Please model this.
Amino acid sequence: MPKQNTKDLFKETTMTFGEHLEELRACLFKALLGLAVGFALGLLVGGRVVDLIQLPLQNALAVYYRDHSIEDIWEHRSELREAGYTVPEDFDQIEKDITKKKWMFEEVYSNPIELLRHLKQSDQKQLDDIPLPELDPQGTFGGELVPIFLWRPVEDAVRVTSLSAHEPFIIYIKASLVVGALISSPWIFYQIWMFVAAGLYPNEKKYIHIFLPFSLVLFFTGAATAFFFVFGPVLKFLFHFNDMLGIAQDIRISEWLGFVLMLPLGFGVSFQLPLVMLFLERVGIFDVQAYLSKWRIAILVIFTLAMFLTPADPTSMILMAAPLTVLYFGGILLCKYLPRNKSPFED
Model:
């Protein structure tokens, strides 16, 4: 009978708790050093990034004011025609005109005599022959206010405000930090996976070279999904809710930046789900049957995590949970069609 080999083949790969902490410290230091280099590069383009992150908000505000203008014009179409404006009879045509010209409509009230006085001061030659009535004892022209319809470009109303002198500088620094995080993200992810690899056996470390590129692709895909496909519906829902409560829109750039940072980051991290599933299957913690049998619990966990990783609105939660549910079953397919090879040392 052959003698059984009791030698620990992985003895040299075993790390103590202190060695794990030392490895973690080294990886964190290298990751922070890479982030600092990326931040220095981000300072060169911070201004352009501030303009870029405002685009989803400005587009959503433009749609918000445009829709309000269309409804106001439809409501006051008879008064506008009496005032000499050409207003289409069809609501859809009004929407096309407003969308094409990028105007917004406002109804304001003014004293016509006071308005005439200002017009005479600006163009005395043309309006000099029109007399003004005498002032009343209170020193005003008196009379009732009448509605006046004004038009102005939509972009004039979609500017993001700042309520302090130092706030734009802080925004510039934060935007540069975001750019730095994106630039250095490959290096940061590399350090994270190197820390994970330090605790793996040699036959498992080869998966790091596969997981690292996929991890970057999933992170950037999640962040891009939030920026290009989630911001619009979420802002539309929030603006509609504010409008329903009668609250005017006056958004600060610092609050918007926090929103911009939180949502793409949450999407980027959560989109790592299929990769985490594949990794856990590779190291033998879960298998395909376990994933399939617990899919209901997994979906419940996905919706719960989406609730914490997104702002306090149902739209962003659903828009995160829906693709994560698809990614969960995509992770099952990865585990099924890329099965784990059995280690010769398992017996």
Remarks:
- The first helix runs from residue 17 to 42.
- The chain has two domains: 19-47+163-337, 59-157.
- Residues 59-157 form one domain.
